[in-house]
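Model it.
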Amino acid sequence: MKKLFTTLSNIWKIEDLRVRILNTLLFLLVYRVGSFITLPGVNANVLDNNAREGLLGLLNMFAGGSFSRASIFALGVMPYISASIVVQLLGIAVPTFQKMQKEGESGRKKLNQITRYLTVAITLLQGVGYVRTQIPHDAQMLSEPLFSISSMFILTAGTLFVMWLGEKITDKGIGNGISLIIMVGIIAQLPGAFIAELDSRLAGAGIIPFIVELIALFFVVIFTILIVQGVRKIPVQYAKKIVGNKQYGGVRQYIPLKVNAAGVMPIIFAQALMFIPMSIGQFFPGAQGPVLAALTNYTSPAYNITFAVLIIAFTFFYTAITVNPVQMSDDMKKNGGFVPGIKPGKVTGDYIDAVISKITLPGSIFLAIIAIMPSLAIVLGVNSNFAHFYGGTSLLILVGVVLDTLQQIESHLLMRHYDGLMKTGRLRGRTPVSGGTTGPVL
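Modeled.
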C-alpha cells in the first residue's frame, strides 16, 4: 500500500504528467455530459431506454448508453472506427493508399484527411438509419422532414466533436483518445449492470452465486490480460561493425511476435457477419427456418460454434495481411541482423512465417473462447448486461486500453528516474492493431 501511495505521489509531482491526466479527465467529463443531452425535438420520456441486445446492445455499450437515450452523441465514435478500418483495408489492397502509407508524415496527413471525410459520409448514412429505426414516431416533437434533416446533421456534428475530443486527448492528455472514449462508455454501463445482477441474486439464489460470479470474472480478466500481452520472442543477432575506433552492433535483440496480433478485429468482423442472419429474419419473416432461428439466437450452440469458427478464420486472415514476414526478413538483412542458426533472406522469412502460424492457432482459439464467454455466462444465469463484461469486444478493449494507458504513465515515471508501476520488470502496453496509420488503438 505504501508503494502505491508513493507512486501516486510521484505521478502528481511530474507537472507535465499531472497536466495531461487532468486534461484527459476534463475531456472525458465533457463527453459524458454531452452523452446525456437529448436530440432537439425528441421527447426523452417516451423513449425506450431498455437495454438492447445483439449488435445494437454492443453499439449502445460503446456509446456509453447514448444510443438508447437518443443523445447528440448517439453514434459515438463508431463511424470513425468504421472509416479507419476501411482506410486500413484500402492500404492493404489499393496501391495508391499503400504509397501514401510509405510517404511518412505527409502520407499520414493525407490518410487522416481521407478518414475524416469518410467519417462524415458514414455518419450521415448511419444518422438517417438511426432516426428512422431507433426513435419512435410518438417521441418526435417536430414534423418531417425537418426532424430527420436536423437530427442527421446534429448526429454528424456530435460524432465529429467526439472525434475531435479523442484527438485532443491523444495530443494534450494521456493514452489514445478514441480508445479512452470507448472505454469510458463501456465502464459507464458497469455500475448499473453490477447493481442489477446483485439485486437479482439477492432476490433469488442469494449472495454466494454472486461471489462465485465475481471470482469467475476475475479469472476471465486475468486470462484476457495473458492473451493481450502474450508474445513469442525470436532472437536476432546483429553483426559487429568497426567504424573508426568504435564498435557498432554485435548485440542480441528480439522480435516480439504477439500471440494475438489481430486484436479485436476478428471479433468485429465475425459479429458483422453474424448480424446478416438477423437482418434476413427481420426483412423476410416468412423465410425464417430452424437454421436461421438458431443463428439469430446468440445463446444457441449453433450461433456460438459458427461465431468461434469465423473468429479463428478471421484471426488467420487479419494476421496474414498485417504481419509481413518477408518484409521483416528483408529489413533485418539490410540492417545486418540474422536469426541464429537460420540463413538470412527467404529462409528467415519462412521461419518467421512458420512461427507466426504456430502461435496464431492457439491465439485464435483463446480469442474465440473470450468472445463466446458472455453467451456462456447468460446461459448460466448471469444478467445479460453484466455478462458483457465476461468477455467479447468490451473486455478486450477495457484490458487493452488500461494496459496501454498505464504503460504511457510508467514511461513518464521512468524518464524522470522514478520507480515504475511494477516492482520488477516493465509494464508492456499493446501494439496498435486497427485503424491503419491513423486509426484508433482498439
